Amino acid sequence: QIQLVQSGPELKKPGESVKISCKASGYTFTNYGMYWVKQAPGQGLQYMGWINTETGKPTYADDFKGRFVFFLETSASTAYLQINNLKNEDMATYFCARWFDYWGQGVMVTVSS
Amino acid sequence: DVVLTQTPPTLSATIGQSVSISCRSSQSLLDSDGDTYLNWLLQRPGQSPQLLIYSVSNLESGVPNRFSGSGSETDFTLKISGVEAEDLGVYYCMQATHAPLTFGSGTKLEIK
């Protein structure tokens, strides 16, 4: 069966970096783009962008250009989201999704000094 | 960016009641390829979102047929014909016709 399994919760300090993984199984990884969505506590869904799993080319929504990086380890069917120079406003749950028909379980990132 | 306005923001329903949620777009969502990329998602408490309806009216596999979608251009509706207890959560519309993809602000369905 198709699954997207994300890494565990993270506790980081402002200014640090965090790397979140999303491991896909049950389908051909390179046949579908991988999308990233942010959900701040008690808030709605915010589109971050996506990565073309065939070419590795990322596309970022405007609010996520600069400190956010999408990349792949195709041999492991895994997509990654890295957030650099963490800020308080990055505290949220981050989801990966295969074209929104399959979602990861989400990763809660807490940013606290 | 395309703005999706969902109404109502909250909805309270009894079991068996039929309800509708509206999603209005600031631009037509009819794509040049003839498709309309308007989807509906449900996020149950503490869970990841799940896809209910894609391309306005197509029921995702495994989703009960009490859910239905309709609409065109800028006005879309999700209908639940006979709410069940498991339907509680937040419903989001999302569009993928225009970049960047955007989500509505959500409609919270509560069960009375």
Terminal CA distance of chain A: 40 Å
Kindly report the greatest chain-chain contact and the residue count on each side.
Answer: A-B, 17 and 19 residues
Radius of gyration of chain A equals 13 Å
The biggest beta sheet of chain B reads: 7 strands, mixed
> Unreliable runs of chain B, pLDDT <50, ≥5 residues?
none
**Total helical segments of chain A:** 0
Please give the count of helices of chain B.
0
Helices and strands of chain A, in order, run as EEEEEEEEEEE
How much helix, percentage-wise, in residues of chain B? under 10%
Question: Which residues of chain A sit in consecutive blocks of at least 5 with pLDDT less than 50?
Answer: none
Structural class of chain A: mainly beta
> What's the mean pLDDT score of chain B?
97
Q: Write the H/E string of chain B, N to C.
A: EEEEEEEEEEE
Overall morphology of chain A: globular
Strand content of chain A: over 45%
Tell me, what's the shape of chain B? globular
Radius of gyration based on Cα positions of chain B: 13 Å
- Average pLDDT over all residues of chain A: 97
The multimeric state of the shown protein is: heterodimer
How far from one another are the termini of chain B?
Answer: 36 Å
Mind explaining what this structure looks like?
The complex is a heterodimer of chains A (about 110) and B (about 110). Chain A has about 110 residues and is mainly beta. Helices cover about 0% and strands about 50% of the residues of chain A. In chain A, a hairpin with a 6-residue loop joins strand 4 (about 35-40) and strand 5. The N and C termini of chain B lie far apart (about 35 Å). The model of chain B has no long low-confidence stretch (mean pLDDT about 95). The interface between A and B is medium-sized, with 17 and 19 residues.
